[in-house]
Amino acid sequence: MSRVFLVLGFILIMALYSEAKPESIEAEGCCFKFFESKIPPSSIKEVKKTGSHCPQQGFIVTTNRFSGMCVRQVSVN
């Protein structure tokens, strides 16, 4: 009987410390407010598209001064 509790205890510990999360609950990598001004192309370091699980699609832009700015569309002029 003690082995059963030992195994159940290990399963409980693994479940509590598991990093697996449902994608619908996680809001990381989503944009909720968007930067509306133009960003000079020379200051853009990185652009990532938001995940397909996000309610609003957009891009996360990293510049020399700011990281994680959300924009609706990236256009380079």
List the helices and strands and how they pair.
Elements lengths: L1 H15 L27 E6 L9 E5 L5 E3 L6
Antiparallel strand pairs: 1-2, 2-3
Any overview of this molecule?
- This is Chemokine interleukin-8-like domain-containing protein.
- One of its GO terms (molecular function) is chemokine activity.
- Residues 30-72 form the Chemokine interleukin-8-like domain.
- Keywords: Cytokine, Signal.
- One of its GO terms (biological process) is immune response.
- The protein has 77 residues and is an alpha+beta fold.
- The protein has a domain at 25-77: Beta Barrel (OB fold (Dihydrolipoamide Acetyltransferase, E2P)), CATH 2.40.50.40.
- It is 19% helix and 18% strand.
- The chain contains one helix and three strands; from the N terminus they run H-E-E-E.
- The protein has one helix spanning 2-16; strands at 44-49, 59-63, 69-71.
- The chain has a three-stranded antiparallel sheet, with no helix packed on it.
- The longest helix has 15 residues, at 2-16.
- The chain is elongated and about 65 Å long.
- The N and C termini lie far apart (71 Å).
